[in-house]
Write a structure and sequence with these properties.
Layout lengths: L2 H32 L11 H20 L5 H29 L1
Helix pairs in contact: 1-2, 2-3
């Protein structure tokens, strides 16, 4: 990728990852205060949202630093794929329960 595109993609991933992580931490604190899980409006659990935020942040860091740090992107992509598959399987199960 061109250097400017690398820089823009890296910063966008970093900012988006930090925002996701902050949202997940806020939801975890809310769950802790209420001593029960918050109602899910999304299809992701809070822990999955936290992992997604951390993985996206690592993706941005690896992209910005370059060199050997790029290997962070591999781990981040693996985490993002695993979470995506978990959410997809959960959605399929919910759909099967509704129809059958």
């Amino acid at each position: 990728m061109p250097p400017l595109l690398n820089l823009i993609a890296g910063w966008l991933c970093l900012i988006f990852g930090v925002l996701l992580t902050a949202r997940a931490v806020n939801l975890l604190r809310t769950e802790g205060r209420q001593s029960r899980p918050t109602s899910r409006t999304d299809h992701m659990t809070v822990s999955e949202l936290l992992w997604q935020g951390v993985a996206t942040t690592l993706l941005g860091i690896g992209n910005l630093l370059g060199g050997r740090w790029v290997y962070l992107a591999g781990a981040a992509v693996a985490v993002i794929i695993v979470i995506g598959v978990r959410v997809f399987v959960r959605l399929l199960r919910e759909r099967v329960r509704r129809t059958g």
